[in-house]
Amino acid sequence: MSYKSLKDYIAKLQKQGELIEIHEKVNTELEITEIADRFSKQDAAHNKALLFTNTGTQFPVFINSFGSERRMAMALSATDLDEPRRRIDALFSQVMSPKESLWDKLKMLPLLSELNTWMPKKIRGKAACQECMQHNPNLNDLPILKCWQHDGGKFITLPMVITQHPTLGTRNVGMYRMQVVNQNTTAMHWHTHKTGANHYEAYKKLGQKMPVAVALGGDPAHTFSATAPLPENIDEFMLSGFLRQRHVELVKCVTNDLYVPADADFIIEGYVDPTEEKFLEGPFGDHTGFYSLPDYYPLFHVTCITHKKNAIYPATIVGIPPMEDAWIGKATERIFLAPIRLLMVPEMIDYAMPFEGVAHNLVIVKIRKTFAGQAFKVMNTLWGAGQMMFNKCLIVVDENCDIHNPQEIVNAVLRNCAIATDVLITKGPLDVLDHAAPQTGFGSKIGFDATDKTLENPTTSLASTTSPASTTSLASTTSLARICNPCVSSQSHGLQIRASDSASNGNSYTLAAHDIATPFSEICAQKPSTNFTIIHDNALESTDFATIVWHVLNNIDPQNDCKIVDNSHIIIDGRTKIQGVAPREWPTPVVSNAETIAAVDALWSKAFSIPCLPSPSLKYQKLVYVDSAWFVKK
């Protein structure tokens, strides 16, 4: 069942015990972020959506709305995250089945009628999103957050940015963060690979200003659809219509000809001038858990702001996982399994994107294997498919492997992956936010064929005749966080994970250690004692496997940081690389500062009836070696 408004969704969350209202005054600069981070990293029983009603403006802030499996399903009007996939499976089965008789063809008519209900529908006149109008727009009237200490300013973090191709007429709804420059100007952070950027280039060729509209709020299905990895010719509002099983009503903007969701809470209208000099946007604490560093992006000029009378401002924060965006990614993973499998990789049974992989750094794929080399076929297909092209590390396993059980994934790699023949390092596009890539948006990828080879060649030896001794059942099915300690000990069967032997002070880096005292080449020259060796910063706890996975995957460019030795060992250097070692400026992890943590601790008893939740940043502060968004090269 679809929602009439964002307020309607909030009411359902409140009824289901999924919402906490905070009436105490909370600063939109840093403090809301710190509180939301504390809740987003709790278990399901304590992880709640938050509605801040006292923001210093007339508008409440709604955050962490998608931040659990249950809320993500509720946002999509689904019973669980697999329900939309099951509907897509049934749809594809009906459409692709042979139609031999007239009756078979007539049975398609109800489907055509259903498809029509998903298509967006334009309405006349004014809509709820236009009840109040600002023709002299002032973004300072909105409770826009400054999320993290070293952010370049305040950012609109949950916008649906609506553009239209100037000649083709196709619409795009994308989610691109927007840094506030002044009261009527923001930056527009669309990456090179995104459709919004393609539309911008098309207007640039024509020498025309580009109309842009930004919607905030409304049915949460709209917001999710703006994040979805759809092909350019698929309208995101059609996906929203499919999810909510009811068309999206669109109304014409006041100052341009774009159409926007009638149920949105806010509409920010304006334009981008492609002839104008770009703005140095950032830094920004990003979903990788690191700051994305300053870069040049177009300016968006606001011509009008409209909103509902009782509008609610939706926001999100991103940073070290898990956070709200991890569940948006989980929904994407579930929903798009069907089209990926049916249209591109028919042998794929399932896939998983663990939270520590921040969507694009790690994908586990389960296949039904029937021929030799099939895992490499799957790797190359996925690396050439849509936003999967941004993936950096891909592991392919057999159909009997539980890809939601980290223990089984590790076992499959150690048992079936021979270093000489089953590891593939190649080049391709990467996410623009990948700071370890030698150049922005381009670098290397690594794939591991962890499928059984015995059926291909019965005489083939297994990669490892022993596997980790412990087979303890894991509590989490969505995270690598709780893998048992024997799998990561220094003498684990076939796998060694150890700290860098850089100069250090106890378990913490000193400034002198930032040049990585022991070069990677010297480490590789040593005789490895295991098939797989992963080297990490010695500021990390050796038993904190979740943080190691997240940190290492962010810090590797496989071609330069993964070294195969004697065709039987692979050494992976996942350390922080700075002062001449890093190919580019190297960012720091995203954490709250001590002052913000103390301020939230002080107001907690006034704002909440539950015991004070500890700050997650306390765990990660040891990884922040300099008080800056990035290391400045000397």
Any overview of this molecule?
This protein has 634 residues and is an alpha+beta fold. It has 3 domains: 1-343, Pnp Oxidase, Chain A, CATH 2.30.110.10; 344-587, UbiD C-terminal domain-like; 594-631, no CATH class. It is built from 19 helices and 33 strands. The strands form 9 sheets. Strands 5, 6, 7, 8, 9, 10, 11, 14 and 19 form a 9-stranded antiparallel beta sheet that branches. A 5-stranded mixed beta sheet has the order 21-22-23-25-24. Helix 4 (83-96) packs parallel to helix 11 (337-343) and helix 8 packs across helix 9 (236-244). It is globular, with a radius of gyration of 25 Å. The chain starts with 5 loop residues before the first helix and ends with a strand. The relative contact order is 0.11.
Count of separate structural domains: 3
What class would the helix/strand composition place it in? alpha+beta
Distance between the termini: 58 Å
Number of strands: 33
Helical amount among residues, as a percent range? 25-40%
Report the CATH C-level class of the largest domain: Mainly Beta
Radius of gyration: 25 Å
Which geometry do the CA atoms define?
globular
Approximate strand percentage: 15-25%
- Ranges where pLDDT stays below 50 over 5 or more residues in a row are 464-493, 501-515
Q: Which architecture of the largest domain does the CATH hierarchy give at level 2?
A: Roll
- Average pLDDT across residues? 87
Number of helices: 19
The biggest sheet amounts to: 9 strands, antiparallel
